[in-house]
């Protein structure tokens, strides 16, 4: 009887560890866009909202995505790592297409960057002002 309990506990521990590893591994960050190619009704959109979005193809990537994504991730307190110039985030966050779509749209949102600059000025943070001004100038062109 004790042997069956130990086997059951070990199995549960292994499954929980595998799930924890799977959710917290780092995967490549890829931009996400709204899926305009939906044909037919969207079923259970509240539960399965990832079907409303798609991973962007190389020709659909917003122009300033790779320049500004680090800035957006840092402002959103999102953990990321960079290896060989590629940005990696945790799988559980990359699997949330709505959040990644939000980050993708912010990389080209002039008003968001202006609000971040105003917030920094209000909070007395002056060290990022030049970098934000450069981003804003690029977005205005």
**Euclidean distance between termini CA atoms:** 73 Å
Shape: elongated
How big a fraction of the residues is strand?
A: 5-15%
Q: Helix count, per DSSP?
A: 6
**Rg result:** 20 Å
Low-confidence stretches: none
User: Which structural class best describes the helix and strand composition?
Assistant: alpha+beta
Give the biggest sheet.
3 strands, antiparallel
Overall number of structural domains: 2
What string, H for helix and E for strand, traces the elements in order? HEEEHEEHHHH
Strand order of the largest sheet: 1-5-4
Tally the beta strands.
5
Overall pLDDT confidence: 84
What does the oligomeric state look like here? single chain
Amount of helix: 40-55%
Transmembrane segments: 5-22
Keywords: Membrane, Transmembrane, Transmembrane helix
What key attributes describe this structure?
141 residues, 2 domains, 5 strands, transmembrane helix, transmembrane, membrane, 6 helices, alpha+beta
Would you give an account of this structure?
There is one protein chain. By secondary structure, the protein is of the alpha+beta class. It folds into 2 domains: 25-107, no CATH class; 109-141. The chain contains 6 helices and 5 strands. The strands form 2 sheets. A 3-stranded antiparallel beta sheet has the order 1-5-4. A two-stranded antiparallel sheet has the order 2-3. The longest helix has 23 residues, at 2-24. The chain starts with a helix and ends with a helix. The chain crosses the membrane at residues 5-22. Keywords: Membrane, Transmembrane, Transmembrane helix.
């Amino acid at each position: 009887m004790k042997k069956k309990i130990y086997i059951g506990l070990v199995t549960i521990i292994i499954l929980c560890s595998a799930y924890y590893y799977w959710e917290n591994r780092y995967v490549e960050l890829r931009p996400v866009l709204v899926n305009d190619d939906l044909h037919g009704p969207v079923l259970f959109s509240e539960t399965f909202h990832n079907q409303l979005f798609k991973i962007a193809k190389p020709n659909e990537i917003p122009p300033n995505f790779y320049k500004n994504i680090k800035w957006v991730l840092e402002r959103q307190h999102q953990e990321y790592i960079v290896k060989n110039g590629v940005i990696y985030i945790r799988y559980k966050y990359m699997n949330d297409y709505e959040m990644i779509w939000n980050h993708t749209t912010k990389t080209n949102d002039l008003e968001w960057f202006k609000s971040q600059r105003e917030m920094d000025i209000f909070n007395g943070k002056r060290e990022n002002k030049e970098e934000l001004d450069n981003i804003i100038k690029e977005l205005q062109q």
